[in-house]
């Protein structure tokens, strides 16, 4: 953990400041130690360079396995493609270059594939995950600098209010036990004028949903490592999906698997992602739009990836100048991080 991280952290229980104790340093970072809130009541260990605000990966253990098995599969730096860079740009309602110097929360970072894009554009990232995926993200991205990691629960995030220039949560909320309330935790952490962006599963394709939900009743109960092996069925199915008419029928309706192009690890991982998680809720546009409206967000704009329901919006009052001036960021967080 970098010492600077302390400046954005607060105790997730009582919101008081956290102080460092028993620190063991390695490579200019805190490898282990304790974070103790100023009331002295709550303690959080730092282990393997990451502060741990949860005791375990809880219901998200399937993600620990997925992102440990395929630690790099999605990264643009691994595929050699600009796939995620292009996607992320297309999501934003401002030029991606404006991320330079901004402080961005990746809530449910997985292996850190979008954190990498923010870093590539000069942003500073706080990457959080409930599962030990955060350790995979740490291995992938910590050498880049400008990134902090925490193992924490989106329902109890250890950050000050009005801290981030942007908070996004991509493919995460629907995997929590209560997605609308998980969402409600994000806007308070963003500074006025900052952005909130999320992606959740859509409930429009009823036939596909009926099949996957039917299979999930069984697959969720299988030993995770066995299920992961079974998901290698996505490797031959990729070629099956190419058969005109019959292929898409098989791979979308009969036995849905991921046929995502970049590499077979990505496809196997995404298939596992489909059949393993404990929670996988689906939504329509009206419901998710209301989350944003009810949170007092404005300029709510749909983002259109090929599947799912995703929006980007601004926390009022709007201060767009800050986004257009590349190096000038007004928020408390980015300001102190620059000085330190
Ligand atoms: C499908 S993955 C998406 C990862 C990443 N956002 C991406 O787009 O590659 C969902 C992630 O959400 C994390 N997650 C689930 N529940 C969470 C919670 N309550 N708090 C934080 N992260 C959570 C999982 O551990 C998993 O890494
Ligand atoms: Zn406390």
Extended strand count: 11
The CATH H-level homologous superfamily of the largest domain = Vaccinia Virus protein VP39
What would you call the shape? Answer: globular
Main sheet properties: 7 strands, mixed
Name the average pLDDT. 91
Which segments are poorly predicted (pLDDT under 50) over 5 or more consecutive residues?
A: 325-340
| CATH topology assignment of the largest domain | Rossmann fold
Strand content: 15-25%
Strand order of the largest sheet: 7-6-5-8-9-11-10
Hetero ligands: S-adenosylmethionine, zinc ion
Q: How many domain modules?
A: 3
* CATH architectural name of the largest domain: 3-Layer(aba) Sandwich
- Report Rg: 20 Å
| Distance between the amino and carboxyl termini | 15 Å
Class of secondary structure makeup: alpha/beta
Q: What share of residues is helical?
A: 25-40%
Mind telling me the CATH class of the largest domain? Answer: Alpha Beta
What does this structure look like?
The chain is α/β, with parallel strands linked by helices and 340 residues long. It folds into three domains: 1-52, no CATH class; 56-202 and 282-339, Vaccinia Virus protein VP39 (Rossmann fold, 3-Layer(aba) Sandwich); 206-275, no CATH class. It has 14 helices and eleven strands. The chain has a seven-stranded mixed beta sheet with strand order 7-6-5-8-9-11-10, with helices on both faces. Strands 1-2-3-4 form a four-stranded antiparallel beta sheet. S-adenosylmethionine (SAM) is lined by residues 60, 63, 67, 108-110, 113-114, 129-131, 133, 153-155, 170-172, 175-176, 273.
């Amino acid at each position: 953990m970098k010492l600077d991280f302390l400046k954005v952290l607060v105790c997730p229980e009582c919101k008081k400041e956290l102080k460092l104790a028993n620190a063991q340093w390695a490579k200019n970072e805190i490898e282990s130690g304790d974070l103790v809130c100023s009331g002295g009541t709550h303690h959080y260990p730092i282990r393997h360079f990451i502060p741990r605000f949860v005791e375990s990966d809880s219901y998200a253990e399937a993600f620990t396995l997925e992102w440990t098995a395929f630690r790099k599969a999605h990264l643009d730096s691994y595929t050699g493609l600009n796939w995620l860079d292009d996607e992320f740009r297309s999501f934003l309602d401002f030029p991606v270059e404006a991320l330079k110097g901004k402080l961005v929360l990746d809530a449910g970072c997985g292996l850190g594939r979008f954190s990498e894009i923010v870093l590539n554009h000069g942003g500073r990232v706080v990457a959080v995950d409930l599962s030990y995926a955060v350790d995979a993200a740490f291995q992938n991205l910590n050498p880049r600098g400008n990134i902090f990691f925490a193992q924490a629960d989106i329902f109890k995030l250890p950050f000050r209010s009005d801290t981030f220039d942007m908070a996004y949560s991509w493919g995460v909320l629907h995997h929590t036990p209560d997605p609308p309330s998980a969402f409600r935790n994000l806007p308070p952490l963003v500074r006025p004028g900052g952005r909130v962006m999320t992606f959740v599963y859509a409930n429009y394709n009823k036939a596909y949903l009926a099949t996957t939900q039917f299979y999930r009743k069984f697959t969720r109960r299988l030993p995770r490592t066995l299920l992961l092996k079974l998901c290698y069925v996505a490797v031959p199915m990729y070629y099956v999906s190419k058969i005109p008419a019959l292929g898409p029928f098989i791979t979308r309706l009969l036995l849905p698997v991921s046929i995502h192009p970049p590499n077979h690890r990505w496809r196997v991982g995404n298939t596992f992602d489909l059949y393993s998680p404990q929670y996988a809720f689906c939504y329509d546009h009206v419901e998710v739009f209301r989350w944003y409206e009810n949170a007092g967000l404005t300029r709510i704009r749909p983002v259109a990836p090929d599947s799912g329901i995703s929006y980007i919006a601004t926390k009022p009052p709007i201060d767009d100048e800050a986004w257009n001036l590349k190096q000038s960021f007004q928020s408390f967080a980015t300001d102190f991080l620059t000085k330190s």
